[in-house]
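Write out the 3D structure for:
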Amino acid sequence: MPRPSPRRCAWGTADPLYIRYHDEEWGVPLHDDRRLFEFLVLEGAQAGLSWRTILNKRERYRTAFARFDPRRVARFGSRDVARLLADAGIVRNRMKIDAAIANARAVLAVQQEHGSLDRYLWSFVGGTPIRNRWRTIRDVPAKTPEAEAMSRDLRRRGFRFVGPTICYAFMQATGMVNDHTVDCFRYAALAGRSRVRPGTAAARSRGAAGRRPG
């Protein structure tokens, strides 16, 4: 008799690509600078699009953006921009491409000041994941005070496409917050060393659901 499928967040059952991303990546604490930069670029690229579109283009992004090595991307010039604008495998939006290059340069400045991008970004949650207690996907907010603080400081440092909603999606993806719903099998699996945010049993702003994959 086949084993029943585990219960997942409502968005994590759409297709095999989403299921794998939900089960293996989303909400897992991430501390590698290159992968954190990757998610900053991808979350910015998603603006106005679906996360499925970005996941389908992810491997091409890795090739086009030098495996997300910020030192290499920071050196991209006009020829690289022209190459990227001609690459149908990525989102060919000039503002988003320019933002990715500008963000790589800003990452280098952050690393110089803080020692690592990881140390800087995780400071917005005190270095420890925040574990929320959402019952349904509708309860999840679009942004939080931590995401707003991150957005303000990133923009001050010259980062682009880092509004509060994008920052919160980034925080969800990289495990700075555990926003799996409480009935999802990944919620308990990721509980680990995290701190529970008070007052999250119900939505703070019902109807303003976060920009989770969709």
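Strands lie at 130-131, 177-178, 195-196.
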